[in-house]
Please model this.
Amino acid sequence: MKKLLWLFALLSCSAEQLPVVETDYWRDFIPFHAEYDPASLPPDLIKGQKTAIDTFPVDEVSGMVASRKYPGYAWVHTDSGNDPELILIRLSDGRILCRYKDTDIQNVDWEDIAAFQDKTGKNWLVIGDIGDNLQQRNNLTLYYLEEPDYHDSLEGSVRVREFNEQARHFVYPDGYYDAEALFIDPDRGDAYVITKRDTRSRVYGLPFKSSYQEWDTAIFCGSFPFNGVTGADVKFDSRILIIRTYLHIFTWHWEFGSDIRQVMAGVPDKPFYDQSEPQGEAITFSVNDKSYYVLGEKLFGIAPVLYQWTYPY
Model:
């Protein structure tokens, strides 16, 4: 009996002396390599209700995100060769309410826009100057700016003003990539960029920082078994990530506190999508209802249309 007590005491002391292994969120993450056939994923049994809001008067919208400050509105922008401006629209009818221009920054190739709310309740927009058709850019930029103010007296106007943006310059660790999709982790504030032209679209992360004075090197997080990604968004209130290509739309659901990189490694749901846009570019969740909106570019003379898809999420 004494021997047993001695052995138990020895094991207890050894357990107490075992070191506590702490993991670093970014350093210790192993990039995922998702494997499934996206074309064979069964679409949701509920097709969702599709509504054509209206023909959209801007031909080359490349990014769209719902306003958190003004529910029912959204911000859109165009890409290379166009003005550095944000356009506020009303989602119920697609009407352009106001244009905000800042001639002090350059629209090299703005491809997507994201939104998040910080811990103080302040609403931010993040513009992704991440397009690189020739895959040779060594200066990619995320522009962080407070969501501009709007009131009804501004409807129909063009506001030339400084965005007072914070520019976050970054490069990839392993080459040059064309990217058209950007989203923000609502729990941590980390930014994610998804490439377009690779055989497998690649995901790169930029950890949240309070200051963007120094250049960053994006961190490779993993890859999807599909490509051609043109837009992404996160529904903050119910933790849904949505990613679109020209052919498909995918969604991932998760709980608060989950590692969004591990979520992306899983098999997504595939909402029904009829590929009715000539060149689908932008996507965003609605803030105040169970909808997402899609918008494309003008192609072969076919004008873009703002579509709303309503699902029972």
Summary: The chain has one domain: 53-310.
